[in-house]
Amino acid sequence: QVQLVESGGGLVQAGGSLRLSCTASGVISSINAVGWSRQAPGKQRELVATITRAGTTIYADSVKGRFTISRDNAKNTVYLQMNSLKLEDTAVYYCRALPFWGQGTQVTVSS
User: Fold this and answer.
1) Which one of 6, 32, 86, 87 has the fewest beta carbons within 10 angstroms of its own beta carbon?
2) Residue spans of alpha helices (H) in the chain
3) Residue 53 and residue 94: Cα distance in Å, rounded?
4) How far apart are CA 9 and CA 6, in angstroms?
């Protein structure tokens, strides 16, 4: 069993930056693909970014060039650096290491 705990969410102005962290209680190095999803009010949960054990990264088109995902297997932690934040980035962000999910952290971008 792996528990995922997100941190780093909050309120930021448009154009600003936030860094999300997801720390696992168990070892995530054995899980190939870990990443982040988000869910805005009234919308379906969507994939934001994924990183494999080999370091391959995949991003949603909406965040390419602005978000960067990374992982530190020694620390059982996955990061999401979010730059140039837009109003439409407002959502609850969930850490994902299937079949496990975190409880989410709120990111609110204001004008």
Assistant:
1) 87
2) none
3) 19
4) 8
Phi and psi at residue 2, to the nearest 5°: -120, 130
What are the pLDDT digits (tens) for 43-69?
999 999 999 989 999 999 999 999 999
DSSP letters, 35-61, are: EEEEE-TTS--EEEEEE-TT--EEE-T
Instruction: Judge residue 8's burial from the number of C-beta atoms within 10 Å of its C-beta, 0-12 exposed, 13-18 middle, 19 or more buried.
Output: middle
3-state DSSP call for residue 80?
strand
Name every residue whose Cβ is closer than 8 Å to that of residue 31 and which is 6 or more positions away in sequence.
2, 53, 97, 98
SS3 83: coil
* CA 1 remoteness from chain centre: 20
- What's the pLDDT tens digit per position in 5-26? 999 999 999 999 999 999 998 7
Structure tokens at 14: 């448009």
How far CA 65 is from CA of 19, 33, 68, 104, in Å, comes to 15, 20, 8, 23
Query: Of 41, 47, 43, whose CA–CA distance to 64 is shortest?
Result: 47
